[in-house]
Amino acid sequence: MSKQEKKDQTQELIKETTKNLFFVKGKFDATTQEIADEAGVNRTLINYYFRSRDNLVQIVFDEAHRVEKEKSEIIMRSDLPFKEKISQFIDGSLQTSLQYPYLETYIVSQINKGNCHKRDVEEEDLNKFYSDIEQEMKLGNIEKMEPMQFILNMISLLVFPSAVRPLIMENMMIDDKEFDRLISQRKDIILNILFKN
Fold first, then answer.
1. How confident is the model at residue 66 (pLDDT cuts 50, 70, 90)?
2. What pLDDT is stored for residue 110 in this prediction?
3. How confident is the model at residue 175 (pLDDT cuts 50, 70, 90)?
4. How far apart are CA 159 and CA 22, in angstroms?
5. For the segment 135-146, what is each residue's pLDDT rounded down to a tens digit?
6. Which residues have C-beta within 8 Å of that of residue 90, sequence separation ≥ 6?
7. 71-105 b/e with 16+ CB inside 10 Å = b?
8. What CA–CA distance (Å, rounded) separates 44 from 142?
9. What is the pLDDT of residue 94?
10. Which of 25, 33, 36, 110 could lock 115 by a disulfide, CB 3.0 to 4.6 Å apart?
11. Residue 190 in contact with residue 154, Cβ under 8 Å?
12. Minimal CA–CA distance to 147: which of 168, 126, 163?
């Protein structure tokens, strides 16, 4: 293996370890030392490859943000029939939630801190999506409401369970495996709530 390949492999290991600590385990305040220990590397390598913990966190956040933006583009720019693109968005969101249970919570926590926030959607795309929602209402496929209410309903049904995952698990007395089973069943439930048929 060349030096460059080893460097790339180590950088990727550190990023994946950070994602795992933040988005899978919910340890948003993991220190540089904790990240290094979890990755099995010397702490100085994090500073060598990423200059600082903050820079590493920014890179990891940007990658997470890119995942969220790609999901948004499914419903904003796709030419699929409306229900199909909503179905794909829900499916992608639930798969991400199963892979990275604390991703949404992390993004919200960073926005609340005033860090790393970037708008995901262009105004033109949002207006087209509102128009698509209004058309579906006229066709009788979804209940009449402000288009923003439809979006809030969809996002709430998708994000809320993951955002309060520890609270739900504690109060419902379930483990990670059971919670993931419940999340994996939500696609049809959400579609049935959002659509009349």
1. confident
2. 76
3. very high
4. 17
5. 999 999 999 999
6. 154, 158, 186, 187, 190, 191
7. bbebbbeeeeebeebbbebbbbbbebbeebbbbbb
8. 55
9. 92
10. 110
11. yes
12. 126
Question: Quick one: pLDDT at residue 90?
Answer: 94
3-state secondary structure the chain: CCHHHHHHHHHHHHHHHHHHHHHHCCCCCCCHHHHHHHHCCCHHHHHHHHCCHHHHHHHHHHHHHHHHHHHHHHHHHCCCCHHHHHHHHHHHHHHHHHHCCCHHHHHHHHHHCCCCCCCCCCHHHHHHHHHHHHHHHHCCCCCCCCHHHHHHHHHHHHHHHHHCHHHHHHHHCCCHHHHHHHHHCHHHHHHHHHCCC
Confidence of residue 72 (pLDDT cuts 50, 70, 90): confident
Sequence-ordered list of residues with C-beta below 8 angstroms from that of 145, at least 6 positions apart, any chain: 137
C-alpha of 144 from chain center? 28
Biggest CA pair distance of the chain: 61
Q: Position 47: which residue type?
A: N
How far is the C-alpha of 190 from the C-alpha of 179, rounded, in Å? Answer: 16
